[in-house]
Every structure is written in structure tokens, then in C-alpha cells.
Design brief:
Distance between the termini: 54 Å
Number of strands: 5
Strand content: 25-35%
Radius of gyration: 18 Å
Number of helices: 2
Strand order of the largest sheet: 1-2-3-4-5
Largest sheet: 5 strands, antiparallel
Structural class: alpha+beta
Order of helices and strands: HHEEEEE
Number of domains: 1
CATH architecture: Roll
Helix content: 25-40%
CATH topology: Nuclear Transport Factor 2, Chain: A
């Protein structure tokens, strides 16, 4: 009986870890889907809301246009709870790092060939 309780406790612990990790991944996926939608719609002023509070680079519409405009539309190709990748027109690859920011998943950095914002 005691052995069965230990096994059940282990299984429940594993399921709890999976559930919490899955929540972060779903939150990051949803946030990145929304971010890509805003980029493709060229809603530059909305993009700052997706950035981590530790973001240091100045961002304005000119910065966003330099980073994304020549590669639209973007397609989110993969998103996990810590990273995402999007592909732009003509195969331009964008890499994103994602971190928890007070309970919300936010973008910590964005990179493409020759340019990184963080």
C-alpha cells in the first residue's frame, strides 16, 4: 500500500511539472502569435507591449521598420517557453528569446542577420 502511494505521488509530481511547463509554453506561443500578427499589420506602436521590462534598446517605429519591414510577412515557425523563430520573406530568419516577466511571457531579445535588439 505504501509503495502504491509513493508511485502515485511521483506520478502526480511529474504531471504537475509538465502542466506548469506546458502553461509557459502555451503562454509564449500565444504571445508570439499576437506579436507576429502585429508585426505583419505594421502596428509598430503596439510592439513595445511584448517586450521584457529589462529591455534596454530604444525602440520606435524607425527601429521596428529597419528590423522587419523588408521581410514581411513573417511566419512563426517554432515557439517554446524560452525561444521562438520566425521566417520572413525570402527566408530571413528572426530569433527571439523569451523570459518570464512578472508572470507574463515577454520577448527579451530579437535577432536577425547583423542586427540584435535587447
Amino acid at each position: 500500500m505504501k509503495k502504491n502511494l509513493v508511485i502515485v505521488a511521483i506520478i502526480l509530481s511529474v504531471l504537475a511539472v509538465i502542466a506548469f511547463a506546458g502553461c509557459d509554453m502555451l503562454a509564449a506561443q500565444s504571445m508570439m502569435d499576437d506579436f507576429i500578427d502585429d508585426v505583419n499589420a505594421q502596428r509598430w506602436s503596439a510592439l513595445v507591449s511584448y517586450l521584457h521590462s529589462d529591455w534596454e534598446d530604444e525602440v520606435n517605429s524607425g527601429v521596428w521598420e529597419s528590423m522587419f519591414l523588408d521581410s514581411l510577412p513573417l511566419d512563426l515557425t517554432i515557439a517554446t517557453d524560452t525561444a521562438a523563430t520566425a521566417t520572413g520573406d525570402e527566408g530571413t530568419i528572426f530569433s527571439f528569446t523569451i523570459e518570464d516577466d512578472g508572470g507574463d511571457m515577454k520577448i527579451r531579445s530579437i535577432s536577425r542577420a547583423g542586427m540584435t535588439l535587447d
